[in-house]
Amino acid sequence: MLCRVQHFLKGNAGALGHIPESTAATQVDALVSDMASGAQDAVTSRAMVTGESGNTRVLRRALWVNHMQQIAAIARAELRHIPQFEALILPRVSESTPRVLRRARAMAEVAREHAEMFIEHGLPANFADQLLAAANALEASLQKRAEDRAEAAGAHGRVAASRSRAQYVIRVLNAQIEKALIEDPTLLAQWKYVKRVGFRGAPAAEEVTPGQAATTQSAGTAPAAPLAVVGQQQTAAAS
User: pLDDT confidence of 201, banded at 50, 70, 90?
Assistant: First the structure.
């Protein structure tokens, strides 16, 4: 709608006088730019959120399968007797990602105290560091996704603020334009269409519904005959 208003002001500058240079018209230009920028930022941010969500799922599975699952299996077989055994238990699949991160860091701390046992069962010497690195990567992905969501919310907020401001700007322009075009009903009708929110083009050709046809006949005006019938009537009259 704002783009249509912008084009209307520029295309009819001669009939509108000073209105295309007014403060309200200048604000239309700024609002068009702001809303286009905000909408693009919102689309980009949503795409970033979707991509980072996929990355988060991959990193969580890598943390689970490549690190925590192996440590938990060895601990269940060899370290059930230690007081800190609960920290070495694999979390439930349904647990939230932040809780899984806390469990992973606790697991790394306890497992490091019994590193010889885990190394004897085939884990690398720096297995605890690898576990922490995987946890840190997952946490970074969560943080990045939260930042992208905040940016998307901010972009939507900018668009909403611009849309709200546009309503007031159009009201100001409407008062000015209706006064300027009071002697030009054709151009005034165009303006009324242009300023409509959600209007996407020229109005469709009107269709006569059965109810409208009945109303027309009852008023004494018969509907127009089809072209084929008119042709037949003309032929009969000529003969």
Answer: very low
What is the predicted pLDDT for the residue at 198? Answer: 57
Range name among 27-36, 74-83, 129-138, 200-209 with the lowest pLDDT average: 200-209
Burial class (CB in 10 A: 0-12, 13-18, 19+), 4: middle
Look at residues 121, 138, 127, 136 and name the one whose alpha carbon lies nearest to residue 68.
Answer: 127
Give the contacts of 115 (CB within 8 A, at least 6 positions apart).
Answer: 125, 127, 128
C-alpha dihedral, 64 to 65 to 70 to 75, nearest 10°: 30
pLDDT band at 74 (very low <50, low <70, confident <90, very high): very high
